[in-house]
Write a structure and sequence with these properties.
The chain has 387 residues and is an all-alpha fold. It has two domains: 144 residues, no CATH class; 211 residues, no CATH class. A two-stranded antiparallel ribbon has the order 1-2.
């Protein structure tokens, strides 16, 4: 009787493993089908955006020589078209992303939270595309001052910008990952600060710090502070994605407790709040208040790096050692600033580079660990089935 019960249970377990293997394979197939459909949709979106750009350019530029930069120019049309198409296509693509089995968790997100997630992603992408085009057309105007093109050339430029923006925004928003959000965060900050530097009338801002750009008012201050707000939105979105990634990893990693996941989530939410607070309280409004958020950002992230060994002990030792090295580099850079070796602006640029590099490696390490953990049970099941 005992032998029969053991045999019966073994058969049931083997059947359950076969079902789990088939479900896993079915999920992989569905994910691949979603990727193929996304690529096809992106091509359709690019074609429609190209057509819309052609129509808009023909109407706006008909029968006249069109300046590249000044007034109703090719640059103005390209920026407007790129930003609007990116905003629309990224919003639609991100809504469709929940159909991907690899991103099915998006279906469980509350409607209000999903709205701000979509808004943060789409607006940030639109801002990055718009500012990149601003820099390109502005550079063209400096190389060829006062140049103008004919109607057909201007229309084709706008149409190509529209098609490229539509395709790129759709494919990027279709599969958002923590690593891609880090790249988007870097793109937002880099392009926003570059445009702020290009539009400022204060040639001596670099002798102080980047926050000087946000306290001058006018176009420069508006762009700089809007950049910080967008960076805060992307960082908050990154916090949610990191929490989800850690929750998936926790299924196979017993050391990854709920408390540890909440600490990581809270750290990145605090960083997002510091970004937004630094924008809402410029240096000209309150030097002390602005410094609380600016310095608080460095303190929070530095403490996270130094405590990573205890917060996430399941990370590889190389990642933990690299985090300590980055924290040491930030401290060393601060010492060089305090002794007057270089300016605060230089210190901020060095720290930004170290932070972005560390975040990229951190998110990629999490992604690899999560994939390895999820693949291990499937491999065990497949091996057991072969026996």
């Amino acid at each position: 009787m005992a032998r029969f019960a053991w045999t019966q249970r073994a058969h049931l377990e083997a059947a359950a493993m076969r079902i789990e293997t088939r479900l896993h394979r079915r999920g992989v197939l569905d994910a691949r089908r979603f990727a193929v459909r996304t690529e096809a949709r992106a091509i359709v979106v690019a074609t429609l955006a190209f057509g819309a750009g052609l129509a808009g350019g023909a109407v706006g530029f008909w029968g006249r020589a069109v300046p590249v930069w000044e007034g109703a120019s090719v640059g103005a049309g390209g920026i407007a078209v790129a930003a609007s198409i990116t905003l629309a296509t990224a919003s639609v693509s991100y809504r469709l992303a929940a159909r991907d089995p690899m991103q099915a968790w998006l279906k469980d997100i509350a409607r209000s939270r999903r709205v701000w997630m979509t808004s943060a992603l789409a607006v940030s992408l639109a801002a990055v595309f718009g500012m990149i085009l601003w820099m390109l057309f502005h550079a063209a105007s400096l190389i060829w001052p006062g140049v103008a093109v004919d109607t057909l050339t201007a229309t084709m430029i706008v149409a190509l910008v529209a098609g490229t923006s539509g395709y790129t925004a759709f494919t990027v928003a279709a599969h958002v990952t923590p690593s891609r959000l880090v790249v988007l965060l870097f793109a937002v900050v880099a392009t926003g600060f570059a445009v702020s530097v290009a539009t400022t009338r204060d040639d001596g801002w670099y002798q102080y710090h980047f926050s000087e750009l946000g306290g001058r008012g006018g176009v420069t201050g508006a762009i700089f502070n809007a950049t910080l707000i967008l960076a805060g939105g992307v960082t908050a979105l990154l916090a949610l994605y990191l929490l989800t990634s850690l929750e998936q990893w926790a299924h196979t990693e017993p050391r990854l407790t709920r408390a540890r996941m909440i600490i990581v989530f809270a750290v990145f939410l605090a960083l997002a709040a510091c970004f937004i607070g630094a924008a809402l309280v410029p240096v000209t409004t309150s030097q002390v208040g602005h410094n609380v958020f600016a310095i608080g950002m460095a303190v929070v992230f530095g403490a996270f790096l130094l405590g990573l060994r205890w917060i996430l002990p399941c990370l590889p030792r190389a990642m933990i050692a690299f985090a300590v090295a980055v924290a040491s580099g930030i401290v060393f850079s601060a010492v060089l600033f305090w002794v007057g070796y270089y300016t605060l602006a230089t210190h901020e640029m060095i720290c930004a580079g170290l932070v972005v590099g560390c975040l990229l490696l951190f998110t990629r390490t999490l992604a690899v660990a999560e994939r390895a953990a999820s693949a291990a049970p499937a491999a065990d099941v497949a091996a057991e089935t072969d026996r």
